[in-house]
């Protein structure tokens, strides 16, 4: 029994770096995005349309191609950040969806920890929230 438990713990330790690649922040972001989408799917679709400049049928096509609404957002956002068409991102998603969005992004040229990687979890709500951009806010003439 002890060997079985020890083996399971070792297996988790070996898998953790791969599964944890995308980082808990991105996992939390995706989870929260799914909760928001489930609360108001028509609104979520409208926001995808406005954010990515897509017509309703295009948004519907992406949503119907993935498992969750947040995956639809990630297909569009990763495509935008990696400068890849959504068809390329969808192909990578189908091949690696079980490995996580961090792996998918890496395979499409977005390096872990890079500015582009961090961009994946920001931007969708920035325009709607009324919050400032963060860094650099309040710096400059007249803001002292």
Please explain how this structure is put together.
With 144 residues, the protein is mainly alpha-helical. The chain has one domain. Helices cover 67% and strands 0% of the residues.
Strand and helix layout:
Layout: H1 2-19, H2 23-39, H3 41-52, H4 56-64, H5 69-82, H6 86-96, H7 101-107, H8 115-119, H9 126-129
Helix pairs in contact: 2-3, 2-5, 3-4, 3-5, 4-5, 5-6, 6-7
Q: Which properties best describe this structure?
A:
single chain, mainly alpha, 67% helix, 0% strand, globular, disordered N terminus, disordered C terminus
Helix-and-strand structural type: mainly alpha
Our count of domains comes out at: 1
Number of strands: 0
> Which oligomeric state applies?
single chain
Fraction in beta strands = under 5%
Gist of the model:
By secondary structure, the protein is an all-alpha fold. It contains nine helices and no strands.
